[in-house]
Design a protein that fits this description.
The complex is a heterodimer of chains A (113) and B (114).
Chain A: E1 3-6, E2 11-14, E3 19-21, E4 23-26, E5 32-38, E6 44-50, E7 56-59, E8 62-65, E9 75-77, E10 86-93, E11 101-103, E12 107-112
Parallel strand pairs in A: 2-12
Antiparallel strand pairs in A: 1-4, 3-9, 5-6, 5-10, 7-8, 8-9, 10-11, 10-12
Chain B: E1 4-7, E2 10-13, E3 19-25, E4 31-37, E5 43-49, E6 56-57, E7 68-72, E8 75-80, E9 89-96, E10 104-105, E11 109-113
Parallel strand pairs in B: 2-11
Antiparallel strand pairs in B: 1-3, 3-8, 4-5, 4-9, 5-6, 7-8, 9-10, 9-11
Chain lengths: 113, 114
């Protein structure tokens, strides 16, 4: 079946530091890959997505590249801000799975001044 | 996009009682799902709400415990039956249109069972 593995948190960074949150997946077929973010006290919202190999999703300075050869979709940002503090979830969906999302365990990011 | 209204936003319930959570969408959607997010954990899919027919449950979830209705393309309910403290969790409604397209999430219902 499908599964997503994320690096464990919490990840604590200073403002303007470089961020990487690792995500690898196991899936049948060709899944779509997503990063969702959950800010404190808010619901889940889509951050970015990629639907095929070598696609790069980007939004709000965050990027992730769909690497089929390494089955990875690592999230990166060149310079984090305090306002980026949130929980980040990697997820996948596959056509064979009826568009159901399989989530990773989430990684909490704390950005300090 | 979709605006999802989920009610109640939170509740505190007694053991053995049931709670029904409502999910209302401002437009017709193809797919509706119910997820659970237990404290400190990721999201787990409970079931797919099918319009006009019985929901499709994931492994570990059964209709007697989590009955779901979806009478039309904009509305669904999830009932948590005969609650125990282990049911304390955030329950999330999510909606979407196409396969491999993004899902939109409601703000969730935080349930505490005493």
């Amino acid at each position: 079946g499908n599964s997503v593995t994320q690096m464990e948190g919490p990840v604590t960074l200073s403002e303007e530091a470089f961020l990487t949150i690792n995500c690898t997946y196991t899936a049948t077929g060709y899944p779509s890959l997503f990063w969702y973010v959950q800010y404190p006290g808010e619901g889940l919202q889509l951050l970015l997505k990629a639907t095929k190999a070598d696609d790069k999703g980007s939004n709000k300075g965050f990027e992730a590249t769909y690497r089929k050869e390494t089955t990875s979709f690592h999230l990166e940002k060149g310079s984090v801000q305090v306002s980026d503090s949130a929980v980040y979830f990697c997820a996948l969906s596959s056509a064979g799975g009826g568009n159901k999302l399989t989530f990773g365990t989430g990684t909490q990011l704390k950005v300090e001044l | 996009s979709a605006v999802i209204s989920q009610k109640p936003s939170r509740d505190i319930c007694q053991r053995g009682t049931s709670l029904t959570i409502q999910c209302q969408v401002d437009s017709q959607v193809t797919m509706m799902f119910w997820y659970r997010q237990q404290p400190g954990q990721s999201l787990t899919l409970i079931a797919t709400a099918n319009q006009g027919s019985e929901a499709t449950y994931e492994s570990g979830f059964v209709i007697d415990k989590f009955p779901i209705s979806r009478p039309n393309l904009t509305f669904s309910t999830l009932t948590v039956s005969n609650m125990s403290p282990e049911d304390s969790s955030i329950y999330l409604c999510s909606v979407g249109w196409g396969v491999n397209e993004k899902l939109f999430f409601g703000s969730g219902t935080q349930l505490s069972v005493l």
